[in-house]
Amino acid sequence: MRKLKKKVGIVMLASVVGLTSTSFATPYTIKEGDSFWKVSRQYNVSLEDMLKENKANKNTVIYPGQIIQIPGKEEVKISSRGGIKRDVPDLTEYTVVDGDNIWDICKKYGVTIESIFEANKGIDENTVLKVGQKLNIAKQNKEQQNISEGSKKDETKVSSQNVNESVEKPSNQKIDTEGKYGEYLDWSKVDGLIPRGTKFKVIDFYTGKSFMVQRSVGSLHADCETLSLEDTNIMKDIWGGFSWVRRPVLVQIGDRLIAASATAMPHAGNDKAEGGAYTTWRSGGYGKGINFDYVKGNGMDGHFDIHFLGSKRHMDGQTDPQHQQCVKIAAGLNK
């Protein structure tokens, strides 16, 4: 009898050990500035395993919004009965009909586009859906619903601020900029002063002409949009049309002037499509993907770049020498 109990115990132990040592991949949404190497360091996995898990190589290009798999990082829980309990989402199957796109399906079910990607391996923002195709829709749990509802409240709050121009007024006040230079302030500080959605004034360093903008996206520098067609026309007048030329500018935040550098070339957006949604065309040769155009009717498709001290390019994570030179000019450090 003792031998039997001992054998049963060994079998149970082997079963538990075998299950708990199994590794599972978990999805990760690429952010601006990410690379396979950077994400592998963040999750403490080898670059080789990361590339193998995603059937990629060192030359594979990844882009914001793309879903990749992190090898061996799915959370596994031990239940009180000694078995394994994994958090598996409650899925609903949806059959694609004519005219469907991922964004509309997300709105229909009240889920995020990231949850669609996570529940359907091989699906991303560039995927063209086919009629009859089956999609898994992950139902939100109470915690996710609360987060979603909280986000909607925040969006409503921001929209209300926009209508009342409560954010715009402090930045649009008249201050004397003649002969003044801007603060030589590092991007790590500026990033907190102008979070996404913030409206502020941009003043051309050489001509003194100014226009209003909104920081819409961007993590390594500020990706901005003009607030109106009038603002776009002023910007084009300064640059002589849409242009990638770097110019020193002053960014007015309340009564502060920050040294900066800007271009005037809108890119990665479609003014006729919903901001943040999937679109089949984006300006600047960006092709289909997530639409980075949130301000409508302003006469431009997408956003333009504003750099500060220490800010970097999104394409390679490096500082732009020409932008940094213009920032110094705006700060009075390179006369």
TrEMBL record:
InterPro entries for the chain: LysM, LysM_dom_sf
One Pfam family matching this protein: LysM
Gene3D superfamilies given in the database record: LysM domain
A GO term, aspect molecular function: lytic endotransglycosylase activity
Region (Disordered): 141-175
Compositional bias of kind Polar residues: 158-174
Entry annotated with the keyword Signal: yes
Signal peptide range in chain numbering: 1-25
Protein's UniProt keywords contain Signal: yes
Alphabetic keyword roster: Signal
LysM domain sequence ranges: 26-70, 92-137
Name of the protein in question: LysM peptidoglycan-binding domain-containing protein
Organism: Acidilutibacter cellobiosedens
Phylogenetic lineage: Bacteria, Bacillati, Bacillota, Tissierellia, Tissierellales
